Predict the 3D structure of the following.
Amino acid sequence: MYKNIPIQPLGTRLIRANGFTADILRLDLIHPVVSGNKWFKLKYHLTEAAQSGKTKLLSFGGAHSNHLVAMAHMAAEAGLRAVAVVRGEEPQLYSPALRQVQAAGARLVFVSREAYGNKKTLMHQMQSEYPDHYIIPEGGQSELGVLGAGEILHGVPTHYSHILCAVGTGTMLAGLAGAALPHQQVIGIAALKIADPLNNTLQTFTASHTPSGRWQILYDYHFGGYARKDPELIRFMNNLYRTESIPTDFVYTGKLLYAVHEMAQNRYFVPGSDLLIIHSGGLQGNRSLPPGTLDF
Ligand SMILES: *Cc1c(COP(=O)(O)O)cnc(C)c1O
């Protein structure tokens, strides 16, 4: 479906000075709402739902979930009904993401943080309350999600030496690692704060979903944790937009690009390296920032 995803060269002085090249795969441009990796991660879930004869979808996420926005829109486009199970009590004022989920026609079901945290019980409860719904794991994190994410690289030139992406659940990273060629190294930048870089669920999920050993996760670019930010990140994002016309989101891709810049500064990439940076979308998440924060 998405055969010609734009690939944009990154021209910053820092990169040129260090003797390597970097291109950005602009998945943020594939769809006005379902941008980025979510379309790929959800694709096979929708196929599977259709094959099992289900006409309704159900999935889980937080109040700012790009995944729920994508699911609600893809369901609507496919003529399916959808239930979005949201972590936390119903807020008085809906977040931009929740408004988008609602506008797409999905039904919102709010679950207390405590009940949401008990994943097994929550799953059983939803299965019994919505037996005719096809249930998609949070973040599309499953074998089918990984399978779809691997297709991000379909049709992309194979000369790149490094593929870099942001990491939430690790589903995209696992897909890319599985699809990468022997001469390619896949580097994931964690968007969350992880206490133990050697032993954590991102590491075990990725390892168990790809036989490839050509990947690693870097944990130093979370800016305080998931969806946290500081003035330096915002400054960097505005500057990147001004100089390269690349809009990024503060939860994932801003941190990814910041990481690439800092790694370049630290001479992480040897001269001759040929980077492909995955712009995984998520720009609608910036709507939760106070107006005027970003220049784009
Ligand atoms: C969801 C999301 C991610 C994280 O993808 P995972 O497969 O969960 O690791 C990265 N970037 C953006 C923009 C996202 O919306």
